Amino acid sequence: MYGHQRPRLFTAPGRALSSAGQEAVDLAARAGLKLDPWQQHVLDQGMGERADGNWASPEVCVNVPRQNGKGGIIEARELWGLFIGGERLILHSAHEFKTAKNAYKRIENLIRSCPDLHKRVKIYRKTVGDESIELHSGQELRFIARSGGSGRGFTADCIVLDEDMILGDDAMGALAPTLAAVANPQTWYLGSAGIGHQSVQLGRLRRRALAAGESGVPDPTLAYFEWSINEHRDECGQGCTEHDDITDTESILKSNPAIGYRLTLEKSANEQLTLGDTLFARERLGVGVYPSDTADTWQVIGEDAWRALAAAESAPGEPVVFAIDMTPERSHAAIGVAGGWRGGTHVEVVDHQPGTAWIIDRAAALHTKWKPKAWVIDAGGPAGSLIADIEERLGVEVVQPKAREVASACGQFYDAVTEQTLSHIDNAPLTAALAGAQKRPLGDAWAWARRGVSVDISPLVAVTLAKWGLGAQVEEQVDPLDNIF
Fold it and tell me: What pLDDT digit, counting tens, does each position of 411-452 carry?
């Protein structure tokens, strides 16, 4: 069986007389990248050209569940821009530094595998934060991680925005003007289903596509491709044929074009057992949550203030403290870490996964490797049920903050951001949690709360408790055998 090669939702201006898509497909094949029919379709439609030679779709958005192969589309488009299209600067932007770095490595390998392309490269720059590929002609493909200021100062012919489900106004404000002085620019947005409050730009693009479909009038600048299902509503009765059932095989095929190429139907269906219905619908079937505007985002700590504290790489100093938190539904759990950093504190999300079965083994491995000062869990929170198992497995006493200490931890975290004494590496789960968090009263103070069931703040709570644990008084664990001598 093969997944559907045409998207459920599609709109395009319809003014294209020709397309550069086949050139991109052929060039990718020369570099060893064979594209699926659906990927070729996206390139054919997205790279359509008008009679005057300009792009029919200055904006192209691809919304497809994870692991289907959107990276192949990106690589083919970037190779074309460098080696055929004559684009002077292509900016590849990802939400996380590690994602941008991995994208650089993939396209570097493709170019090196093709001698005709490799000989045209002047330099492969691999400096952290300055990854780029420059040709002898002066053309350049540059990779950047998004922030409120990334992209400023550049003039680009093409911008590729990977992980567009985490794309807000600040990043767009920095990147969009780079196209203003270019005669024929193009922007590509690629990602998976919207994940709530941080999917601001993706929500706008999707609303434009839906409006075009409802009116029958194509959007004048946007080509939009979405592989997803039209999930049943609560009001649907038995026998409803208008909407899709998440348990149907056809739903998986409809939302995953890579089935039969790089994904298997059996493994994709089994993900429902691990993820549960809600996460399975989002991650595998493309059922997203899209904000209507930006009014509800970043209510406690501003996005600019948070991103200004992002470090290029992991940097927690000793001693370290780990903390665990989970969602009330027990759908996701997170392990956070905090350690010293230049007179302040560095925090990271060590792990964030669906379910809870993985936590004990992961905690044991981290404990053996890092020998932390303490483990912290809020006994009154959802993760409190793990305390006994953690203590038994690790042989330690878990630090359990009281309600006033939880409030103190939140206040300390907030103050550290305000005073710029906190560092992080812009973990996507942590950023998403902070963007969707709000305050809940706790006596005269406050603690973290989420604004809806679609928001998972467990990564934020975990790092907040870990930071607090660095300053908590923890009794040293004494081996009873030590008292024998």
Answer: 999 999 999 999 998 888 898 889 888 898 888 899 998 766
d(CA 291, CA 353) in angstroms, rounded, equals 24
Q: Which CATH number does the domain 303-471 belong to among 3.30.70.2740, 3.40.640.10, 3.30.420.240, 3.90.1150.10? A: 3.30.420.240
Token pair listed for 137 = 């002609």
**176-218: pLDDT as tens digits:** 777 777 889 999 999 999 987 778 889 999 999 999 888 888 8
Q: Which tokens go with 262?
A: 């790089």
* Extents of the domains making up the chain: 9-226, 303-471
DSSP designation for 91: E
CA nearest neighbour of 66 among 221, 248, 319, 263:
263
**pLDDT (0 to 100) of residue 140:** 95
CB atoms within 10 A of CB 326: 24
Helical segments of 248-333, H only: 249-255, 265-283, 303-307
CA–CA distance, 28 with 73 (Å, rounded to integer) = 9
